Amino acid sequence: FRFIAAARVVPQLEPVLEPLMLKCLEGQQKLVGRTVLLVDVSGSMDERISAKSDLRRLDAACGLAILLREVCEEVFVCTFSNQFANVPPRRGFALRDAIVDSQPHQATYLAQTLQAIHANPQNVYDRIIVITDEQTHDGIINPRGKGYVLNVASNQNGVGYGAWTHVDGWSEAVIDYIRTFAQQS
Predict the structure, then answer these.
(1) Residue 68 neighbours by CB distance under 10 Å
(2) What is the 8-class DSSP label of residue 7?
(3) Which end of the chain is more exposed for a tag (fewer CB within 10 A), N or C?
(4) Tell me, what's the pLDDT at 147?
(5) What is the pTM of this model?
(6) Would you say 64 and 124 are in contact if contact means Cβ atoms under 8 Å apart?
(7) Do 102 and 79 contact (CB within 8 A), yes or no?
């Protein structure tokens, strides 16, 4: 997240920052299996994470996506807003840019997106990780594997309960938490 914040302030340093960011992720224990990473790019994700921060919810989501992209053995990244959109297999800041530019930042149709993922028989996964501020127009449906909802906002009531493992916060420790769950399964 500090790399994203630094790149936001001094974008001309991205060529220096990106290799350092990716080097920090080397040697991380992999999350074994196939992971679907679903990033919320709705309009509310453009809100700041707090009144005192320059980072947006989407910046936090992209930071987690960059991290997860590097630690997942096999990962499929997509976004949701008005629709479901596949994200090209990018790394680092290019992944951030691909997520941000994947579609207009408007509504939040999470259940519709999950239905689209589940409708394709090739979309078999061990875990699905939704990075969101937990606002949705159409609710949420159960995952077809282990499901995690990572809340990057401070909304008190969200959608990620029931069959989903709900995590408030967006630090790197979230990955350790998911890794621990994966080892216990």
Answers:
(1) 23
(2) H
(3) C
(4) 95
(5) 0.91
(6) no
(7) yes
